[in-house]
Amino acid sequence: MKELEYPFDSSFLLKNRRKIRRALLADGTLRMEKRIAILGGSTTNDIASMLELFLLQEGIAPVFYQSEYAQYWQDAMFDNPELLEFHPDLIFIHTTVRNITEAPLPLSAAPEEAEAALERQMAHFTQMWEHLEQTYHCPILQNNFEFPAYRLMGNREAWDCHGMVWFVNELNRRFAQYAASHTDFYLHDIQYLSACYGLDAWQDSTYWYLYKYALALPAIPEAIIQRTKHPAYGYFDPSAAYYDGIINWQKTRNGVNDLTKECIGYENGVLGGVVSALKVLCSNGDSVLLQSPTYIGFTHCIEDNGWNIVLNPLVLDEEGIWRIDYEDMEEKIVQNKIHAAVFCSPHNPTGRVWERWEIEKAMEIYQKHDVYVISDEIWSDLTLPGYQHIPTQSVSEDAKNRTIALYAPSKTFNLAGLIGSYHIIYNSYLRDRVCMEGKMTHYNSMNVLSMHALIAAYSKEGMEWVDELRTVLDTNISYAMEFIRREFPGVSVSRPQGTYMLFLDCTDWCEAHHQTIEELQRAGMEVGVIWQDGRPFHGACHIRMNLALPHSRVKEAFERLKQYVFLD
Which residue among 3, 81, 273, 373 is the one 20 to 30 A from 90 at the CA level? Predict the structure, then answer.
C-alpha cells in the first residue's frame, strides 16, 4: 500500500488509520497471527495502532497486549497473570529518556558516582531482560534512548559525566553491547529516529498527558471491589441508585430541585457527548462558537468531525479577571451564522467560575439568535472556597430548554480511566435525538463498574471528601500565586476560581530573557516539572499547569523552577 511506503505521512496515517486498516483486511491476504506484548514507559496506544498497519502490510495479523501506563517494569518482573496467559511471540519494551531514573547527576558527584549510577541503570534493564527471557522464551525488542530536548550544560553535556547526553550515550553503548552478545534480543534505534524526526517535534509536550495525582476516596474502590464479586458482566442499564445519586448530588451541590431521571442520560465521555449533541445541532461544515482560551479536547473533537471553530476571546478586566466579550460574541454569531455553541462552566483552562449575571447575559444573546448551547460542566464540583457553580440550565426557562449540559465525576474523583459521564437535557426533542446519536453507534453502553463508582462518589462520604479536596486545591493555588508574584517577574496569571489549573502568561518573561516559550517549557521538563504547552489552548505564550497533587510536591516543583528555570 502506497500510504505505508517510506517516507510516509504519520499525521495522515493517524487520521486515516481505520480506513487503511479496513482496506488491508479486505485485500484477501492470508496472514499469520502473532501476539505482541508492548510494555510501555508511557502511553502506547498510538504505537500499537501504527504497528498494526505495517504488520498487516507484511502479512502478519498482530494481537496486542499493552501494559498500563508506565508499568513496563511491573509487568516484566512480577509475572502478570494476564501477560502470562497471553503467551507473547514478541515483547516490545517501549521506554524513552523519561524512564531514565539515575541521571542527570548533581555537579558535586564524583566520576565514580556517575559510573555507579550507570551500572545501576543498566542493571535495572538487564535484570528485566533476563527475567523476560526465562519466563517467555521469545524475542525481545528494546528501545534505546533519544537525547534530552534541552542540554542544561550546553556542549559540555557530551563529555561531562554529570550531563544527561553523556549518560544517554553511555547507556546506549551498553545496550548495543548486550544486543551483540545475546540472541533474540534486538534494539529499536530511537536515538536515530528522534534525530530524523527532530527533537523539537519528538519532545513536543502537547502529546504528553498531564496525569492527575488526586486519588479517589476509599468508598470508590470498595464499591468496585464489591461489584467485581458478582459473576455477571454483561450489558446493564443505569440503576435506580445511579439516577438517585445524580439527582441528590445536583440538588445538594448545585441547588437543582426539579431534576428527574428522564432528563439524565449515560455518556461514555463528555467529549463524546459534545460530538453527539453537535451531530444533532449541526451539519457538516457548520461553525461552532467557543470562548478562548479553549480546552484542547473541544478543538480536536470539533475539527476532527468536520465542523469549524469560531473563537470568542475572553478578555482580562482591570482586576485581572477573565470576562466574556459579549459584543464580540454577538458579532461572531451573526457573521458566521452560528447555531451551536460550546460553553465551558467553570472554564478550562482559565478557572473562571461564571457569575449568574454573566451566564444570563450570554444566554440572552443565544436566545436572541436561536443558538443552542452545549454546556460542559465537568468542573462544577471543583469551585474553590468562596465561589459557587451556577448550572447554565438554571438561569432561565429558555436556558433550561436550550441547553445540553454534560457532567462527570472523573475530574473530581480521578475516575477518567473507568469511563462514564452523563448528560442532563430537559428538552425532550433534543434529548431523544442526542440519545439516538449515541445509540446508533452503540457508543453509550453502560460501564457497570463506572456506574458503581459514580454511586459511591456521589455519596455523603464523597461530598465530605470533595470539600476537603477543595481546601487542599485552594492552598496549592494560593501558594503558587504568591510564589509566581514574588519569584517570577514577567509571568502573569489570573487567580482561578475553580479547577486545579493555572494558565501562565509568560510573554513578558520570555521577551525580557530572549527565550521562546518552547525553550522555557523544555527547561521545566528537563528538571522534572511536567507542564503543558498553552498554545493549543489558544494562549500565544502560555503554559498550563496542573496543581492537583500534594502540597509538598507543589512546593518542590516551584523550587525547581526557581532554581533552574526562571533565572535572571
Answer: 3
